[in-house]
């Protein structure tokens, strides 16, 4: 019989580069110390470490609340450690969370939640935490912690897409933390698949534009002075804004009638935004001012490159 749990997968991003910089022996020692520290932190936060995976850790928590609290603290503490440490050993953490019944067999665990948490860990970027909806079901946002919907994401091996959230964990109120965040933007963010080369592409009719991450924010709207104009009466003068935030492209709806997002491969599951925001990933479509049910709605194709 399965045991209900929240599964946490962690992974150290950039470990391959550390092996190149330090050599096998020193890199192995460095990574082992960090994974051992992560395991200790999980156990101290009421988690059960199932196993370590080279540069990762698999742990189980009794509920989503304790898991979220633990991984937020992990990111915050590790963030400060790597900012103060040498650049050639900087390895930000990626974390995936999922809740469900798991089977415990011979010191290992199995189940859909295990597969989902592992996949979300693979998909998210450095310094990010991705969680499925089930793991946040009974968890409230706290000061400095918020949940940003990413929308439905296909998980390999699952028939249905998984609704995923990004857990924002940065304590923006703390001035010393902001100073370190500025340092991290210079040290770590370019390592996120080279952010200076990250782009978002927008297409509508015969108009296609690409915007680099450092060019954001840009605005989508009906008037000529916005960066991407969609000339349709259902589109607000300034309808939406694209921002670069924590390594992600965020769509912020500022319109009168809302925006709908459809991610490619999401089996028709749409995300409705009314004065809300959502992280864009992969590619898909934006319906501006009306839902996709209206076949004449102005539809902008987007691609995060």
Summary, kept brief:
Strands 1, 2, 3, 4, 5, 6, 7 and 8 form an eight-stranded mixed beta sheet that branches. Helices cover 25% and strands 36% of the residues.
Summarize the structure in words:
With 305 residues, the chain is α+β, with helices and mostly antiparallel strands. It folds into two domains: 3-191, 2-Layer Sandwich (Alpha-Beta Plaits), CATH 3.30.70.1230; 195-304, Tumour Suppressor Smad4. Helices cover 25% and strands 36% of the residues. It contains five helices and 19 strands. The strands form three sheets. Strands 1, 2, 3, 4, 5, 6, 7 and 8 form an eight-stranded mixed β-sheet that branches. Helix 1 (15-22) crosses helix 2. It is globular.
Annotation keywords:
six-stranded antiparallel sheet, about 300 residues, alpha+beta, eight-stranded mixed sheet, Alpha-Beta Plaits, single chain, 19 strands, Tumour Suppressor Smad4
Radius of gyration: 20 Å
Content of β-strand: 35-45%
**Whole-Å distance between the termini?**
43 Å
Q: Could you name the ranges where pLDDT drops below 50 across 5 or more consecutive residues?
A: 173-196
* Structural shape: globular
How many strands, what sense, and barrel or not for the largest sheet?
A: 8 strands, mixed
Detail the topology: elements first, then pairings:
Blueprint: E1 3-12, H1 15-22, H2 24-44, E2 48-52, E3 56-61, H3 64-84, E4 93-105, E5 108-110, H4 112-123, E6 129-132, E7 146-153, E8 162-168, H5 175-187, E9 199-204, E10 207-212, E11 218-221, E12 228-229, E13 240-245, E14 248-253, E15 259-263, E16 270-273, E17 277-280, E18 283-288, E19 299-304
Parallel strand pairs: 4-6, 11-12
Antiparallel strand pairs: 1-3, 1-4, 2-3, 4-5, 6-8, 7-8, 9-10, 9-19, 11-13, 13-14, 14-17, 15-16, 15-18, 18-19
